Amino acid sequence: MTAPTLAEVRTWPAVIPVAQAATALGCGRSGLYDRIRRGDAPVRTLTHGRRVVVVTASLVAVLEAP
What we know:
The protein is α+β, with helices and mostly antiparallel strands. The protein has one domain.
């Protein structure tokens, strides 16, 4: 899967799966899960039971950073 453009990411729903966020960040899904578990993920996450999702607005902020 190719990395989406920032314009595409801005059209995504309010929360997205970790795998989708990892693609946008250019990293692996398991690596992003590891960072989430350690508490040093570059994006904000929400947990619903066992499911973890990424807040799209925080992803956009990371991608906009210089």
